[in-house]
Amino acid sequence: MENKHAINMLEGSIYKNLCIIAIPIALSNILQQLFNASDTAVVGHFASSQAMAAVGSNAPVINMIVTFFTGLSIGANIIIARCIGAKEEDQANEVLHTSFVLAIISGFLMLIIGQIIAKPVLHILNTPTDVIDMATLYLRIYFCGMPFLMIYDFGSAVLRSIGDTKRPLFFLIIAGIVNVCLNLVFVLGFHRNADGVALATTLANGLSSFLIFHTLIHEQGMLHLDIHKLGIQKEHLRAILWIGLPAGLQGLIFSISNVVIQAAVNHFGSACVAGNAAALNFEYICYFIVYGFTQATMTFISQNYAAKNYARCRKTTRTSWLCAFGFTALISITFFLLKRPLLGLFTTDAQVIYYANIRMAYIALLEPLTSLYEIPGGSLRGIGHSLEPTIFTLIGSCVLRIVYISLAHAAFAHFSQVVIIYPISWIITGLAVILLYFKVTKEEYVEM
């Protein structure tokens, strides 16, 4: 039975179908970030700058964990897409059930670990003493919702394998509106601060996971989730981990490098932490454009590679890179030009805005450069080469950043000296992954 939500990736306009898949993915992540930004904005306006810093100081830690398991879900997306391209629907359904069990186990594992590591990690990051207790409580409440996050991420990855990105977006909109409303209820109505917005986020994540679960339960055909069939098949688990684990490790180590940088940010005090947190919202939105096209590229190429449409694979990479760079540049420039009123949505504190302006100039404005390594790296993952781009990206970006911060940290006199490492590492990594892409595809895209 043909799924009415599926996109035909093997035929038709590459640009049109890429946009149909990528834009909802980008919007989903942008909306998620906007709803997360509401946490920062609500406590910044209606609680205190300390509460805003408490929420912001947790961003690198949360991102570190979430990106690892989001990367892991990429394995499920690619394996199911490959089964579709090879017309192996029974195999696709088996992968679905294996990936769903993996999501549940991962979520509860992180719930437990999060309660243990919350305060020690924030101490390691040199979180300012005036916010550390508030930040710890926020982080522990957030980790209580990790099972919900994992179910939503893996469920969304499953739907993306057929090009269905609209329903996850719709579910996220519903959950996000609930999140914003609950933020206001807990902070204004119950006079809570960081803990109130954390609870609101957790409840909203629970709603989005229920909606994705309900969808898969009632889906027809190969994406039907039958709770009686839940279980792990070793061969599918190995395939998911072979592709997803390197992608997850890349996200994890990327985030570790950001955690190291966060420690350098914390050195400049709570105003810098708050300003850094405010600017992060805009650069995340810019990056999610690139991320959306990267995810679409992986799914698109997985199906076409399985169908041996190698010329279409090459054209997909070119088209996706042009879209990712162009659309991201448009958003980045717009944010930079409107930075004064946009930052005013988060705070009126002049010191906080000063630091936020610096980060926006050095990172948000130059975010299109991330497409240099993300798109060719996503293309390689689509054909099963997940480890190589991960290694190149980790060395070019993460290791370079950590070494730079470690060696130069003591000499930092200005915040700009911290953030300049981002665009430098993007350019170096991009050149390396592009060369890798041409080398690998020259061997892989060979007509028999």
TrEMBL record:
The way it spans or sits in the membrane comes to:
Multi-pass membrane protein
Which regions span the lipid bilayer? Answer: 61-83, 95-117, 137-157, 169-190, 196-218, 239-264, 284-307, 319-338, 391-413, 419-438
Q: Please state where this protein is localized.
A: Cell membrane
Domain of life, source organism: Bacteria
What are the entry keywords?
Cell membrane, Membrane, Transmembrane, Transmembrane helix, Transport
NCBIfam families, sorted:
matE
What protein is this chain from?
Answer: MATE family efflux transporter
